[in-house]
Automatic annotation (TrEMBL), chain A:
Residues 31-138, 173-288 form the Rhodanese domain. This is Sulfurtransferase. InterPro entries: Rhodanese-like_dom, Rhodanese-like_dom_sf, Thiosulfate_sulfurtransferase, Thiosulphate_STrfase_CS. Transmembrane segments: none annotated. Keywords: Repeat, Transferase. It catalyses: thiosulfate + hydrogen cyanide = thiocyanate + sulfite + 2 H(+). The keyword Mitochondrion does not apply.
From TrEMBL, chain B:
Transmembrane segments: none annotated. Residues 22-138 form the Fe-S metabolism associated domain. This is Cysteine desulfurization protein SufE. Gene3D superfamilies: 3.90.1010.10. It comes from the Bacteria. The lineage of its organism: Bacteria, Bacillati, Actinomycetota, Actinomycetes, Micrococcales. It comes from Frondihabitans sucicola. Belongs to the SufE family.
Amino acid sequence: MTVDRDPSPKFSEYAHPERLVSTGWLAEHLNDQGLVVVESDEDVLLYETGHIPGAVKLDWHTDLNDPVQRDYVSAERFAELLRERGISPDTTVVIYGDKNNWWAAYALWVFTLFGHDDVRLLDGGRATWEAEGREYTLDQPAVAAADYPVPVRDDSVVRAFKDDVLAHLGSPLIDVRSPEEYDGSRTTAPAYPEEGALRAGHIPSAQNVPWGKAAAEDGTFRSVPELDAIYRDGAGLKDGDDIIAYCRIGERSSHTWFVLHHLLGFENVRNYDGSWTEWGSAVRVPIVTGAEPGEVPLVASR
Amino acid sequence: MSDTPALPEALAEIQQDFLDLGVKDRLQLLLEFSNELPALPERYAEHPDLLEQVVECQSPVFIFVEVTEGRVHLHATAPRESPTTRGFASIIAQGLEGLTVEDALAVPDDYPQTIGLVEAVSPLRIRGMTALLGRAKRQIREKVGA
């Protein structure tokens, strides 16, 4: 870790307090050596309308996804992206974005896939920075290219594929989509584009915990007691559980992955990034409709 | 492409302006369009019921088409924090402004895919503009009973 952690008392109750920084802390550390601030938004133009001074932009779709195959970019490309943004392996990266850090959490999860060590979220993201009237700039930062050796992407620890989910049936699954997507009345989030799942519903036994529940009204993360009430009391998660979270394309569930792993301390949490757009179009995988989780079929189809 | 009808002038110009730029500069041009989206005329600002939401867009965007003396006018509104969607709406509004009904309906449905923005903003996002154009054309048809 290059830059000291944010000692805010709020974060000390979380399992991994070093994964969050507050807006106040960031404002004071913007010029720290070894720190790079990255903006990652749903809206590809938002950065251009004004961003935190010195922040570089990383777009979840045009930068992090492979343009041809449905997968993340190659390790070579990832290294190139980080070099261009002045990030080296020992850089402290702070990511922030719009919509409760939805896409910032997604970027953080992709950084984790590629093994970047010190990557943190700005608690509250753009909304909190703005609400506090903090500075934005239109200036593009002058970035000195850094050295980033080609990393090894490890898909085995925080990422789950469809076959992993089939093998996992019977263990906790968290569906973080809206209730309407979960019960099968629609395949996309309300007010979101159709992304082509042929069937609607959810994976049998999955508990529905819409991702946004983890954020308070002001966009910052809820406290541990509040999160425990949602995920332990509400969704029945217990210490030691092996958990897979999914949504529609794996972005909202990255946010929940962050909460379960870094804030609540569950050790084994994977994000199924194929999510509903894969499961809802796959042949002979079990699906349940309606508001109840449903039963795991005795013989899961393979 | 020589056998397709020529694009209306404004749309052709917008297309050329984007294609003349590199991918990064196209985003800047889209931002300019975003900033140019005019506020709704007051008569619609007070009548949200008249506006139709383009649900295919990631952000809340509402449109309303007027046809006066055979000419098309598109009004649109989208929040400041959704500059991409505002940019899409602004391009369609400026491109359709003052066209005859016939010319507006003849605008190719795949126009949004032809202005060099697919690679700049991603195919997923460009679908929002395609839906916006489609809904605008449907409203025009409804207005003139075509």
